[in-house]
């Protein structure tokens, strides 16, 4: 039987609104973000999730807790589901990061082609390192649990970085608003992952 991961981004933070690089910086949800988390949980009531597994960073953890609480299912915390570390860029406005570290670096970080796998901000993680960390968590769940439908509370960059790995190079940049949900399906017969290229649509 397939294992289905419903991967969602956390609710809004003030840094999201200000367009700042968050990375590993531990920023809480704002009031809008808390409302978004509740709305997401209510939508997910239609999905038979077995468990929520969340990044340990507060914005994702708060979102994951809301979903787990409203659905009355267990919550597991896994730091491997954190956002990519942006190193020296963390806390900077996007436009200031572009000016400081260069448009070329920024464009490469917005591209998920294999040749950009080793790109990252100074002092931060590369795309490859961050993705391998995230997928180690996913594979651990597959290998050590019987959960079939798993909610993953994580971050925009982490979500993009993971899904694009399983999509064609020609795939346009995935749209990742706060609390969007995408599916990543593992087929054990073919031993392969299948990623959504569009957000999950609730009935």
How many domain modules?
Answer: 1
Q: Please name the fourth-level CATH homologous superfamily.
A: Phosphoglycerate mutase-like
Biggest sheet strand line-up: 3-2-4-1-5-6
Number of strands: 6
CATH architecture annotation name: 3-Layer(aba) Sandwich
What is the percentage of strand-forming residues? 15-25%
Largest sheet: 6 strands, mixed
Task: Work out the radius of gyration.
Answer: 16 Å
- Estimate percent helicity: 25-40%
The helix/strand class is: alpha/beta
Task: Kindly provide the name of the CATH class.
Answer: Alpha Beta
Shape: globular
CATH topology assignment: Rossmann fold
The stretches of 5 or more residues where confidence is low (pLDDT under 50) are none
First-to-last CA distance: 23 Å
What can you tell me about this protein's structure?
- The chain is α/β, with parallel strands linked by helices.
- The protein has a single domain, classed as Rossmann fold (3-Layer(aba) Sandwich), CATH 3.40.50.
- Helices cover 37% and strands 15% of the residues.
- It has 7 helices and 6 strands; from the N terminus they run βααβαβαααβαββ.
- It has a 6-stranded mixed β-sheet.
- Strand 2 (51-54), helix 3 and strand 3 (75-77) form a beta-alpha-beta unit.
- The longest helix has 18 residues, at 127-144.
- It is globular and about 45 Å long.
């Amino acid at each position: 039987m397939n294992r289905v991961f419903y991967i969602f981004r956390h609710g809004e933070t003030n840094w999201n609104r200000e367009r700042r690089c968050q990375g590993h910086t531990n920023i809480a949800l704002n009031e809008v973000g808390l409302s978004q988390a509740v709305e997401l949980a209510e939508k997910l009531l239609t999905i038979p999730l077995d468990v929520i597994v969340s990044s340990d960073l507060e914005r994702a953890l708060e979102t994951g807790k809301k979903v787990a609480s409203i659905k009355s299912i267990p919550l597991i915390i896994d730091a491997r589901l954190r956002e990519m570390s942006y190193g020296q860029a963390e806390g900077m406005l996007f436009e200031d990061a572009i000016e400081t570290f260069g448009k070329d670096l920024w464009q490469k970080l917005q591209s998920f082609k294999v040749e950009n796998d080793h790109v990252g901000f100074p002092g931060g993680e590369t795309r490859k390192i961050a993705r391998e960390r995230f997928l180690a968590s996913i594979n651990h769940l597959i290998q050590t649990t019987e959960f079939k439908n798993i909610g993953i509370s994580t971050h925009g960059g982490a979500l993009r970085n993971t899904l694009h790995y399983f999509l064609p190079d020609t795939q346009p940049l995935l749209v990742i608003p706060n609390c969007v949900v995408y599916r990543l399906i593992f087929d054990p017969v073919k031993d392969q992952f299948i990623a959504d290229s569009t957000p999950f649509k609730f009935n």
